[in-house]
Write a structure and sequence with these properties.
The structure is a single chain. The chain has 415 residues and is α/β, with parallel strands linked by helices. Helix content is 44%, strand content 14%. Strands 1-6-5-2-3-4 form a 6-stranded mixed beta sheet, sandwiched between helices. A 5-stranded mixed beta sheet has the order 9-15-14-11-12. A two-stranded antiparallel ribbon has the order 7-8. The longest helix is centred in the C-terminal third of the chain and has 17 residues, at 297-313. The structure holds one RNA strand of 82 nucleotides.
Length: 415
RNA sequence: GGGUAGAUACCGAAGCGGUCAAACGGGGCAGACUGUAAAUCUGCUGGCUCAGCCUUCGGAGGUUCGAAUCCUCCUCUGCCCA
């Protein structure tokens, strides 16, 4: 067996062992193909918001692994398809976004994708399907692409079938989505030499449609599909979603501190899986971290949180978040306040927690916390919702420590 | 275009003239127990200047002392027919 072939197999094995692979077409053929030298891979990202959330980290990490293995990666932002909305895995019609909004979202996405893969070399390039759909006529598209699709077969496809039979219906615009995605793949096959498309398992039908289209139109059988498993937490919740919303990669939406905490608080049963998927640590090192189980997993969780935060927000922020999580004063999330605001009668305790420190949604939220006995100022339990915070509550360094529940802590610092 | 069913808080879902800030379940938050885990138990879960007040039941009007509940119109969605 030659080296190239071994490398190709190793790469696939690694991806499998790390939990990236749910399904793939023609594994033998794919190894064969990868062994021939650097290939190109594409994964689509929907520009439905101006930031990605951590559910998108699976595809991003997959691209990063492939790039590190020497392959060319093509993150595709769906400037055109975003205008339609993929029905896959959705139970209802997605709301349509304006072209302007999508353009703005794409800018945000580009920056974030860059944290996972490097654009410095020629082996990565962001592509936007709006570039090749923009000038295309409907008639031409129907004739060249549409005729290769059997409606019968599409309806049998789970993605469409569920919607077709479900309560919310499926409208024509969404029904076209698969054709667009298939066309994307074919276009990138021709123009960028892209041979592999990866995506979430809900994309399986769409990706295979592309593989099919390439075979029918171009007569080529060296296009491959690989899908990732749908990542859920062990409690079944979709990855990266909390009641407050998603965990975003954008620091303005989810602070590095909160981001770190999300990973730090992952359930025991998810640590091993997440370390493999969301960090670049060697598998042997991961095995080491998790082998003792039980309480020892806390160290693994901290490592997980640190590594993931480092990838997304950089090492400095990761270090800071780690120190903050350990309770070190200097790294605690801090709100700077004016001394004059706390003169005399000071500020009402409700106001301090809800408005100034933004640790609670409303004053009512703070009241409830007080009632439940979970609100602290300088580690002293607050019992009176009418109480207030004055200069006397700040120590010599001008610090005052607020705590909401066990985990939410902030420091107020006098300016 | 015709018919029909529906639109309730974060989600699902009761309520069908006053006792409704709205049952119940999920989720979430807090407390106890713990390991910043899980499981379990308890409390909370619209807003506020909080024993009181204000705004919510798709939207706009109307009936009534009183409407999430009745009437009219509108918007959206499902289903059936054309």
């Amino acid at each position: 067996m030659n080296t190239e072939r071994r490398n190709a197999m190793d790469l696939l094995e690694t991806l499998k062992k790390r939990g990236f692979v749910e399904q793939m077409t023609d594994e033998a053929g794919l190894i064969e193909h990868l062994a021939k030298g650097p290939s190109s891979v594409y994964i689509g990202f929907d520009p439905t918001a101006d930031s990605l959330h951590c559910g998108s980290m699976v595809p991003l990490m997959a691209l990063a692994h492939l790039q590190r293995a020497g392959h060319r990666v093509l993150p595709l932002v769906g400037g055109a398809t975003g205008l339609i909305g993929d029905p896959s895995g959705k139970t209802e019609l997605r709301k349509l976004l304006s072209a302007e909004q999508i353009k703005k979202n794409i800018e945000g996405l580009k920056e974030q994708i860059g944290r996972f893969i490097s654009f410095e070399k020629q082996d990565a390039k962001i592509v936007n399907n709006a570039d090749w759909f923009a000038g295309r006529s409907y008639i031409e598209f129907l004739r060249d692409v549409g005729r290769h699709f059997s409606v019968n077969r599409m309806l049998a496809n789970k993605t469409y079938k569920d919607r077709f039979e479900g309560e919310n219906g499926l409208n024509f615009i969404e029904f076209n989505y698969q054709l667009f995605q298939a066309f994307d793949f074919m276009h990138l096959y021709k123009e960028e030499g892209c041979r592999i498309q990866m995506g979430g398992n809900d994309q399986w039908g769409n990706i295979c449609a592309g593989v099919d289209l390439i075979r029918r139109v171009l007569g080529k059988d060296d296009a491959f599909a690989v899908t990732f498993p749908l990542i859920t937490t062990s409690s079944g919740a979709k990855m990266g979603k909390t009641a407050d919303g998603a965990i975003w990669l954008d620091a303005a939406r989810t602070s590095p501190h909160d981001f770190f905490q999300y990973w730090r608080n992952v359930p025991d049963t998810d640590v091993d899986r997440f370390l493999k998927l969301f960090t670049f640590l060697e598998l042997s090192e991961i095995a080491d971290l998790t082998k003792d189980g039980g309480q020892a997993l806390n160290a693994a969780k901290e490592k997980l949180a640190f590594e993931v935060t480092k990838i997304v927000h950089g090492e400095a922020e990761a270090n800071k978040a780690k120190s903050g999580a350990r309770g070190e004063v200097s790294a605690m999330p801090t709100v700077t306040v004016n001394k004059s605001d706390f003169d005399g009668d000071g500020q009402g305790i409700l106001n301090v927690f809800s408005k100034i420190a933004e640790m609670a949604k409303s004053n009512g939220d703070v009241r409830r916390a007080i009632q439940g006995g979970g609100l602290y100022v300088n580690d002293e339990k607050v019992t009176d919702p009418k109480g207030s915070l004055t200069l006397a509550d700040f120590n010599d360094d001008g610090d005052c420590f607020l705590r909401f529940g066990k985990k939410k802590k902030k420091r107020l610092k006098l300016a």
